[in-house]
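pipeline/complex-builder :: batch 7 item 3
reading input block
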Amino acid sequence: DAMVIQNPRYQVTQFGKPVTLSCSQTLNHNVMYWYQQKSSQAPKLLFHYYDKDFNNEADTPDNFQSRRPNTSFCFLDIRSPGLGDAAMYLCATSRRQGLGMEQFFGPGTRLTVL
Amino acid sequence: GEDVEQSLFLSVREGDSSVINCTYTDSSSTYLYWYKQEPGAGLQLLTYIFSNMDMKQDQRLTVLLNKKDKHLSLRIADTQTGDSAIYFCAESIQQAGSYQLTFGKGTKLSVIP
């Protein structure tokens, strides 16, 4: 089945220790998104890639970076995680950009910062 | 702003209908979505409606849209225990040349057997 896969499902890191979250997709979609979802909060868009074009949200902290080495993979790098970065990180894809374009979500990676 | 608001909790008895409400702010033509999130899982698209429609029905799901009041609702008929989840309302908006989803905080639906 075509899908969005996120690894690992649970990630524990130490305060200040860099961490990388991984997302892959078999849908061959052009657009990949990273969202941060804190407890009882709405998912918040961090950035997205349209093919290789990177689009950063204005309020995404510099501590968060992303890489998309090819169509299938996208990585979220947190350079120096703080306690406030503990959250569920959701990856999503869509075939292209546009009104009404459905986004397909992965199961998420829950990040704990000790 | 692009706030999407929804109540946080709803509790219903199995077999009853559930109605989850949402308000949005963008007045331009847009798509509005309902996503379902089960524990430990990602978001699953349930249904969507374009803003020129008033109603959309899909099996047990009915979406009602009141454009004047910017009010969206999701009705689940014959609610089952498997419907227990968090339901997110989302609006598609255009920002800085790209299209994004703005989500509400989610309504946690608890179904009592």
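note: Chain A touches chain B at residues 4, 6, 9, 40-45, 48, 50, 55, 90, 92, 97-108 (CB under 8 Å).
queue -> next item
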